[in-house]
Amino acid sequence: MTIHHDSAFDRDAALITARILLEIKAVNFRPEEPYTLTSGWKSPVYIDCRKIISYPRARARICDLGVEKIDRAVGHETIESVAGGETAGIPFAAWMADRMALPMAYVRKKPKGFGRNALIEGDVPVGKETLLVEDLTTDGASKIRFAQALREAGARCAHTFVVFYYGVFPGSFEQMKAMDLTLHHLASWWDVLEVCKERDYFPEASLAGVRRFLEDPVAWSRAHGGVGSLEEALAHKGKVG
User: Fold this and answer.
1) CA nearest 19: which of 56, 54, 53, 61?
2) What backbone phi and psi angles, to 5 degrees, belong to 214?
3) Cα–Cα distance for residue pair 100/115, rounded to 1 Å
4) Cα–Cα nearest to 179, from 208, 156, 213
5) Which among 87, 67, 74, 197 has a CA at the least distance from the CA of 136?
6) Residue 112: predicted pLDDT
């Protein structure tokens, strides 16, 4: 499959990010023992973006690329505030907000249940165009919930950024587009496979299994005991909260 990138910068940023993730061993391939994602999809691949926080040079490079991506796609002065999604999005939001010289807050998955019972911590960015930041997305459901929370609190939230986008499961872009929420990301699984051609990161048998998954992830998930449609994934997420 040929990977489409909107610009030479997007392609370079994607491959640099994929290379970093492979080097720090944040990429996991396990076709013989699939992972179950929170949405119920079965997947032979799993990305652990949380590992990035332990590598100062890697996280600096990725956050620099993220800020430039947003500057190019959205505009340098458009974003007025940055919000991280609990919990993995918080450090990336903080680093990017610092680079952009912007205020930062974070959004809880649910109110903490005492004190102010706040859903958003920090100064609520009322009336401000707020960039929602997380580490990754599979189907976009958590981004929609966080964006809704920001909007209900009075913020404007039209853009969300993630380091890694699975880019395979149905409905993610469509659901976010229906919410007037634009997703910006650095790398996807196709970029990881592209970089895997450079070195022997994984055995060829594992790479072949991942390619089969990427070519038809819905059928692959269904065949391995996972959900087999967007509707099933939404229902599953509703059950697990």
Assistant:
1) 61
2) -65, -30
3) 31
4) 156
5) 87
6) 67
Q: Which position has the token pair 């996972």?
A: 226
Distance, in Å, from the CA atom of 201 to the CA atom of 207, rounded to the nearest integer, reads: 9
Alpha-helical segments (H) within 29-159: 56-73, 89-100, 141-152
pTM for this prediction: 0.91
Mean pLDDT of 43-60: 96
Reading the block at residue 160, the tokens are 């969300």
Q: How far is CA 167 from CA 77, 140, 150, in A?
A: 28, 10, 25
CA-CA-CA-CA torsion for 235, 223, 186, 23, nearest 10 degrees?
130
C-alpha distance across the termini of the chain, in Å: 35
Quote the CA–CA distance of 34 and 68 in Å, as a whole number. Answer: 35
166 pLDDT higher than 90: no
Which two structure tokens, joined as six digits, stand for 240? 């697990």
Q: Which two tokens stand for residue 206?
A: 């594992």
The residue to which tokens 């269904």 are assigned? 222
| CA–CA distance, 202 with 196 (Å, rounded to integer) | 8
Residue 207 contacts residue 26 (beta carbons within 8 Å): no
Question: 100-118: string of b/e by CB count within 10 Å (b at 16+)?
Answer: bebebbbbbeeeeeeeeee
| Residue 1, token pair as written in the block | 């499959």
| Angle at CA of residue 94, ends 146 and 157, nearest 5° | 35
Q: For residue 124, what are the CA distances in angstroms to 78, 89, 127?
A: 18, 17, 9
Give the angle 122-127-128 at the CA atoms, nearest 5°. Answer: 65
Is 114's pLDDT higher than 50? Answer: no
